[in-house]
Specification:
By secondary structure, the protein is mainly α. Helices cover 37% and strands 0% of the residues. It is elongated. The protein starts with a helix and ends in a 21-residue tail after the last helix.
């Protein structure tokens, strides 16, 4: 998937929406070394988006931890 994204950028396809068309491109499949380029499709825009923007974990907060703006009396 990383190779697909890098080759897409090198070919001028900066937007992830362009990869919906490119996922059926046999030449790009050869570039990213798919075993059978005619039958295997490449990653779509949703998959590549998950690759670029991983899920963020929420910050764990402790009950004893106080914010910096709260001052002690």
């Amino acid at each position: 998937m990383v190779a697909q994204r890098v080759y897409g950028l090198a070919l001028g396809y900066e937007d992830l929406n362009d990869h919906e068309e490119l996922r059926n491109d046999p030449l790009l499949a050869v570039l990213v070394e798919k075993a059978d380029p005619s039958s295997q499709v490449l990653a779509g825009k949703s998959t590549l988006n998950r690759l670029e923007l991983p899920k963020r974990r929420p910050v764990e907060r402790s009950a004893t931890k106080r914010s910096c703006w709260i001052t002690e009396p």
